[in-house]
Design goal:
Helix content: 55-70%
Number of strands: 5
Distance between the termini: 43 Å
Strand order of the largest sheet: 3-2-1-4-5
Radius of gyration: 26 Å
Length: 300
């Protein structure tokens, strides 16, 4: 038995080393993929920053404005290797702008002379790749196949969320989209992570019922309360839809916590029944309540 465990650990270590080597190779390739872009990529070589203005902030107080004079090197295209001058304005809050640093890579629309240009956005594929690799390797190292399934569930949820955002931009109702996303997130996440079994389906039912109760409580309290001021939503791009947006934020924000609590309590009850099929109702209730108290104590 001990030899079998040692062999499994050895296989796992070899697999992790192979994955790590592949991840390093992938990082090198992505970090030097400028030639694959049609858009001009500029790597920042030097930056000079100066304070340009002070204006009233959105909420209260004042906000400082700065201008960055950027010198960069073109990394792809016919003008590869040439130097280009760029300008970037940013504020203290960085809500609608960005602060760039030496070494960052930018997607740029070059001017006719090729020595100036307009910054489109920052090139982030390398950072996204690193975050994805760290998450994937960490999940596999900790949870093996279950970790891989969790990552697959996360990727699927990101795809669904992206589709939902595009649908919203096309004019779909945000409430209907949120309800559909909550249903899909709950079903797919729990089935992928825990398999097609009684625990998963009970967790799905409990999750949806709990969210429905939360929505009902919110709507009742909202109806008898003074009008909300929606602080911290000043930068929302849909100011005419703040009420629906705030409600959807509550539902989506609470989904993860509700799912976690649901699967924990149902797994506890299922385990108790497997260990002792004749367990008394009062004893099971007491055990589950103890687990729920521990969970709520951590959350609050």
């Amino acid at each position: 038995m001990k030899l079998h465990i040692t062999a499994d650990r050895r296989k796992k270590r070899i697999c992790m080393l192979i994955l790590l080597a592949a991840a390093i190779i992938g990082y090198v390739l992505i970090d030097h993929d400028a030639a694959l872009y049609d858009t001009t990529i500029v790597k920042i070589l030097a930056i000079e920053t100066e304070h340009s203005d002070i204006q009233d902030a959105v909420v209260s107080g004042e906000e400082n404005y700065y201008i960055q004079s950027i010198t960069g090197r073109i990394e792809n295209g016919e003008k590869k290797g040439n130097t280009v001058a760029l300008y970037n304005q940013y504020t203290d809050s960085n809500v609608r702008d960005e602060t760039y640093r030496v070494g960052d890579s930018l997607l740029v629309e070059l001017g006719d002379d090729g020595t100036t240009g307009k910054i489109l956005e920052q090139k982030r594929d390398t950072m996204v790749y690193l975050l994805a690799v760290v998450l994937l390797l960490g999940m596999i190292a900790v949870a093996d196949v279950s970790g891989l399934l969790a990552v697959c569930s996360l990727v699927l949820n990101i795809v669904l969320l992206t589709v939902a955002l595009y649908c919203y931009l096309d004019g779909w109702n945000i409430m209907a989209l949120t309800a559909a996303m909550i249903l899909l997130f709950s079903v797919l996440s729990l089935l992928i992570g825990n398999g097609w079994n009684r625990r998963s389906w009970l967790s799905i039912v409990v999750t949806l019922l709990s969210l429905a109760a939360t929505a009902g409580i919110y709507l009742v309290v909202r109806a008898v309360s003074p009008a909300l001021q929606y602080q911290m939503l000043e930068y929302a791009v849909v100011p005419d839809d703040l009420s629906a947006l705030f409600f959807c934020e509550i539902m989506v924000g609470g989904l993860g916590a509700v799912m976690d609590v649901a699967i924990s309590l149902i797994s506890t009850a299922d385990e108790l029944l497997e260990q002792n099929p004749h367990i008394a109702y009062a004893e099971m209730k007491q055990s589950i309540r103890a687990v729920s108290d521990d969970i709520m104590g951590t959350i609050t």
